[in-house]
Amino acid sequence: MHRKHLVALIAIMIALFAAAAAFAEPLPIPNVSLTIGGNADSGKASTVIQLLFILTVLSLAPAILLMVTSFTRIVVVLSLLRHALGTQQMPPNQIIIGLALFLTFFIMAPVWQKVNDEALKPYYEDKITTEEAFSLAAAPVKNFMLKQTREKDLALFVKIAKEKRPEKPLDISLSVLIPAFVISELKTAFQIGFLIFLPFFIIDIVVSSILLSMGMMMLPPIMISMPFKLLLFVLVDGWYLIVGSIVQSFQ
Fold it and tell me: Which burial class, exposed, middle or buried, applies to 51 when counting CB atoms under 10 A from its CB (0-12, 13-18, 19+)?
């Protein structure tokens, strides 16, 4: 196995274990046995339906992680940072995605804890129905997305969906809230990326002007400016500032 593939596999496994550790109690997985012939009772049919539901949720987990969490903003900002530095594939994609995942788990931990306490635990204790569990689980996620979504984006999708103006924010449907949240995250990520690009863009201009004045037009400016970019990034403790700014932007 190629080294970069091995690193990606290890990062995904660690991320899955971290996500599982965020819950106070392990999720029970039903035991299923298939038999040929005979009549299936209601209990076995219910178990099969639960298994299908779990498999469906697992298949949609990547899309849910991307669309309703902080992952989108984080991975876009880190990708723009790499382009601003001009380091091509350094850090590698696996490192950027792994860091974005761990930061997502850190930022979303309070939301997931509320979902676990208010929806999952009562549901597995048979205190609430499936519909009640879904509505209770969606409330903390909606609150998180509403704090990061612009009213302009929400109004756009409410108008496109031809829905009535909701009386309160939690009445907004997920089909409207999720795309509004995504485009708001993209705009915020590009705003942060613009601020990141400015100092490195100034370095490129200065280096290009110096090389042009010296008549060294055949020398690529990126070869000279990259060490100065890395030096500036290290001197200002760039990772501390970038990661700190990203996390605080969600508070």
Answer: middle
Q: How far apart are CA 101 and CA 17, in angstroms?
A: 12
pTM: 0.68
Percentage with pLDDT > 70 across the chain: 78
Q: Residues 76-127: pLDDT tens digits?
A: 888 888 888 877 777 888 888 888 888 888 888 888 888 887 777 777 777 7
Apex 11 CA angle, 8 and 12, nearest 5: 85
Q: CB under 8 Å to 186, separation ≥6 — which residues?
A: 72, 73, 76
The whole-angstrom separation of Cα 188 and Cα 234 is: 25
Q: What pLDDT, on the 0 to 100 scale, is given for residue 26?
A: 47
Q: Which residues does 87 contact at the CB level (< 8 Å), separation at least 6?
A: 226, 230
| Interatomic CA distance for residues 183 and 67, integer angstroms | 10
SS (H, E, C) the chain: CCHHHHHHHHHHHHHHHHHHHCCCCCCCCCCCCCCCCCCCCHHHHHHHHHHHHHHHHHHHHHHHHHHCCCHHHHHHHHHHHHHHHCCCCCCCHHHHHHHHHHHHHHHHHHHHHHHHHHHHHHHHCCCCCHHHHHHHHHHHHHHHHHHHCCHHHHHHHHHHHCCCCCCCHHHCCHHHHHHHHHHHHHHHHHHHHHHHHHHHHHHHHHHHHHHHHCCCCCCCHHHHHHHHHHHHHHHCCHHHHHHHHHHHCCC
Q: What separation in angstroms does the CA of 247 have from each of 93, 105, 202, 208? A: 20, 11, 26, 35
